[in-house]
């Protein structure tokens, strides 16, 4: 029975029927108004967090906020929908393309879009799309809950002396702390740099990753950086930055300077 515990895992009640957070991106204000009206009146489980006529503003927003789904127009003057997605190679949100043209369907499939809606959007098609978004969110929430449970197990005293578990691309990777050189914040996400020159993109905040690392070996020298103290090669007092074994220069915050030197 112990080995099969995952099969009986139940999704926490607060994740069931959770509000779907959505943003709309379209260079035509009328299209946004129309789609917003349809979505708002179609389901009470949808929250349109924001709308954008400029995709560049949407990129900035998504770098700082977690969203369940993006309704994305394809043909826009600043950049098209496919160029927009190039900014999110490891995206954590679903994509629904909205367009007046049908010739982009194959490219949409290649981009792993959740759906492809032709304007004017049919109500029945929109209903099916919303169900797809709900289904995907439920699956992701379920996976995240199991993942968090596994991460908690990895932080137990027994596991802490060996390896730590970090979620990357839907799977758990196990590392010895000494394999990690440093971690760098990227808004709601972060990057982990390993000794083998591998760089991992993690969909968790730096603070969450920091909590997994042994405090005696790792230290947050700057709001954007956590470093492995065993990998520090030198520290330049005048410029207030340190150099790691891989020659990476990391800034040290003024208010962290004395505590960093004490740790070293």
Shape: elongated
Pattern of helices and strands = EHEHEHEHEHHEEEEEHEEEEEH
- CATH topology name of the largest domain: Rossmann fold
Described by strand count, sense and barrel closure, the largest sheet is: 5 strands, parallel
Average of pLDDT: 83
Radius of gyration: 22 Å
CATH class of the largest domain: Alpha Beta
Integer tally of domains = 2
- The helical percent reads 25-40%
CATH superfamily label of the largest domain: Response regulator
Task: Tell me the CATH architecture of the largest domain.
Answer: 3-Layer(aba) Sandwich
Strand order of the largest sheet: 2-1-3-4-5
Structural features, described:
With 264 residues, the protein is α/β, with parallel strands linked by helices. The chain has two domains: 8-146, 3-Layer(aba) Sandwich (Rossmann fold), CATH 3.40.50; 159-263, Beta Barrel (OB fold (Dihydrolipoamide Acetyltransferase, E2P)). 32% of the residues lie in helices and 29% in strands. The protein has helices at residues 29-42, 55-64, 81-85, 105-110, 123-154, 157-160, 206-212, 257-263; strands spanning 20-25, 46-52, 69-73, 94-99, 115-118, 164-168, 171-175, 180-186, 189-194, 199-202, 218-222, 225-228, 232-236, 241-244, 249-251. The strands form four sheets. The chain has a five-stranded parallel sheet. A five-stranded antiparallel sheet has the order 10-9-8-12-11. A three-stranded antiparallel sheet has the order 13-14-15, with no helix packed on it. A hairpin with a 4-residue loop joins β9 (189-194) and β10. The longest helix is centred in the middle third of the chain and has 32 residues, at 123-154. The model is unreliable at 1-16 and 156-160 (pLDDT under 50).
